[in-house]
Structures are given as C-alpha cells and as structure tokens.
Write a structure and sequence with these properties.
The protein is an alpha+beta fold. The protein contains 6 helices and 20 strands. The strands form 2 sheets. Strands 1-2-3-4-6-7-9-20 form an 8-stranded mixed barrel.
Length: 398
C-alpha cells in the first residue's frame, strides 16, 4: 500500500503572555505556503491538529483552547522603519478554517524574542546587555507594535521575576507599546475607533433585549456590555460560563449582532466563520472574588472587573488585544469600561480577570472634530521558548 512520507518544517513552540503558539519564519515554510491561500491554511490546520470533531487536537500541536490554537509567521519587514512583519493565524479547533481577521496581543510579546533568536534583527541593534527595541509590523491589522526585549550576554533573557496572573511561573518582562491602536476597521465604520460614532449604543439583540454596549476598534474589535444587564456580577470564573450552553449561545448572539452593528459583517450568519473577531466582554465595578488559582482579589486592588470570551468560550485570563481595548476604552470618559472604573479621565487601569489582575495604560485625546484618538496603549507580558526544532506533517496535508 502506497504511503505519503511526512515532511519536517523548522518551527518554535513559544508561550507569549497567557497564550501558546507555533512560530515559523516565513522563508522556512514550503514555497507554496509562503503566500496567503488554501495551501498555507491547510498546512497550519494540520500542524495544530484541526479540524478535530473530538475537540481535542490530539493529532497536532494545539491544546484544544482558543489560547493554544495559534500560529505565527514572522519575516524581515517590508515596511519602512520596521524590523519584522508579524502575521497571526487563529486556528479553529473543530472547523476547517484559519481566522486571519485580527491580532493576538499575548503572542505579540513573543515576536520580538523570536525575531532576535531567529536572526531576523540586525546584530548591531542587539545590545550585549539591556533592552533591544524591536519594531514590529502587525500585518493582520496593519499597526505598529514596539517590543522592549531584555537581553543578557547578547542573548534574549527569558527567565526573571516578572509575574503575570494566568501564567504559573515568573519570567522576564517584555513591555509592549501598541501605537495608534485603533483598528483600521472594515465596512461602514472603517478606520473609526468607535465605528457607530457613539461611545455607548443601544444594541438590540433578538431574544435578549436592548443592551447598552460600547463597541470599539482598538487592539481588536470588541463589544463591551454591562455584567448586570445580562445577569452577571463580573466575578465569574470559566466554569460558570463555559459549562452553560445557554450562556454561550447568548454571548454568541450578542457578538453576532454587535459585529453587524460595527460593520464587520453583513449578516449575523457570517459570524460563525469569523470566530476571532469581534470579541465580546462584560464589565462591572470592583468587587471581591477568588481567582481561579485560589488567590483572593480584593475590590480595593482593582478599578473594575472584566470578563471576555474568545472563540466562543470565556478566556481563562485576558487576551492581550482585549487588554488594549480595555485600556483604550478606559481612557475615554463615558464608555462602559470607563464608567465601570469610576468615570473621569485616566491613563491607566488595573482590572480583575478570572486569573487575577492586570495593569494597562493608554494615552487618549479628543480631536477638534469631537472624535477620540488614542496614540498609544502599553502593557507588559512575558515570553519563553518551550521547544524548538521541526514540526512534522504528512506530505499531502497541503
């Protein structure tokens, strides 16, 4: 019986923030996979182990969660003033598609370290000791990210004492700056940070009612609603949401109608093929709760509570891109995020999520036209190489 041998492709398995993914140099991919299209998508699906009707991704590198079903392609930049181009692919677990519609903020923290180690940064730019500044072009959303990567003895420093709730072990801190983080947008609201033109909208959702919503394009398109309006407190952990099929269906319905309102899709039916964006999140004022690790979070230690869903499930911590959206919305007086944090002008917030807390910041200003502009959002993450070598896939997989 004829059989097809496996091929092997150089790859690095990395944790970035609270996510994990398989990283590739563009030039290391098979030639027909170096450009967008079906061969590339089929290759990445097979690498991760999708589509998997069992929902486990046993036959691939994925770990059956939105935080671990991820791929990254990095190359020397084609954009002036940038070091590398970074393309992110969110791989569906049970469906045969890769969603290229947004960025992964958590894995953004691993792009700079990967680029340095992979030889994509001019050696003259890398200090023997100190911080290496890597200018990243985020190709999905066409935005600039600046990563400040610690270097020791000319090599990326991965170990350290920076603690990130949602990650078990400490590591070296990587600070990220998301410049002009408002998404370029699609459809009628293209390019607007608030695509509907309002800081707060009345979003009509059949079967659920009319909800107050802040819909923002910053970091990643995100829909924020008040926890109390949908029967929650903002202190919920994963099990409270993910074990409730009715709750998950409700959030997906809100997300689909919000996506239409934001001009991202033309009909709610299209949301099923666009799982990565927009995100749906709910906010609440500070309250005491116990994080998933057993760590107590006190109301006095946070400005607000935020819970967000990714790929149809409540995230175990907080997506990096939604952290940018939170920072941006918090900096604009009158949004639901800002109001949950107490209102007023602010350049940073500390919010509570299922795994603990996170501090993020943003600089906002109001233009003479009345539109709000955020010039920069800042947050810290950490990153670490977990494994490097080759991934193997059957030669007929793509």
């Amino acid at each position: 019986m004829a059989h097809v041998p496996q091929i092997r492709i150089p790859a690095t398995y990395m944790r970035g923030g609270t996510s994990k993914g398989v990283f590739f140099r563009l030039d290391d991919l098979p030639e027909r996979c170096r450009v967008p299209g079906e061969p590339r998508d089929r290759l990445l699906l097979r690498v991760i182990g999708s589509p998997d009707p069992y929902g486990k991704q046993i036959d691939g590198m994925g770990a059956a969660t939105s935080s671990t079903s991820k791929t990254v392609i990095v190359s020397k930049s084609t954009q002036p003033g940038h070091d590398v181009d970074y393309l992110f692919g969110q791989v569906s677990i049970d469906q045969p598609f890769v969603d290229w519609s947004g960025n992964c903020g958590n894995l953004s923290s691993a792009v700079g370290p990967f680029a340095i180690a992979a030889g994509l940064i001019d050696p003259s730019r890398i200090p023997r000791d100190g911080l290496c500044t890597v200018r990243i072009w985020q190709a999905n959303i066409r935005k600039t990210i600046i990563a400040h990567v610690p270097v020791t003895d000319g090599q990326v420093q991965e170990t350290g004492d920076f603690e990130l709730d949602g990650v078990t072990f400490p590591a070296a801190e990587v600070q990220l700056e998301f410049l002009d983080p408002a998404d370029e947008g699609e459809g009628d609201g293209g390019g607007a940070m608030f695509p509907t033109g309002q800081l707060v909208d009345d979003l009509e959702v059949p079967g659920i009612g009319t909800l107050k919503a802040t819909m923002i394009n910053a970091g990643i398109p995100t829909i924020f609603v008040n926890a109390k309006d949908i029967g929650y407190t903002g202190t919920e952990l994963q099990e409270a949401i993910n074990s409730d099929p009715k709750a998950l269906a409700m959030f997906e319905t809100i997300r689909a109608h919000g996506a239409v309102r934001m001009g991202l899709i033309g009909h709610v039916d299209e949301a099923a093929k666009r799982q990565h964006t927009p995100k749906i999140a709910f906010v609440a004022p500070p309250a005491d709760y116990v994080a998933s690790s057993g760590k107590p979070v006190r109301a006095a230690d946070v400005d607000l509570l935020v819970r967000a869903l990714s790929m149809g499930k409540l995230h175990h911590a907080m997506m990096g891109t939604v952290s940018v959206a939170i920072a941006t919305a918090a900096a604009v007086p009158g949004t639901l995020v800002n109001l949950a944090a107490g209102g007023g002008e602010r350049e940073q917030v500390r919010f509570g999520h299922p795994s603990g807390t996170l501090r993020v910041g943003a600089q906002a200003r109001r233009e003479p036209s009345g539109e709000w502009v955020v010039t920069k959002a800042v947050m810290s993450r950490s990153a670490r190489v977990l494994m490097e070598g080759w991934v193997r896939v059957p030669g007929d997989a793509f």
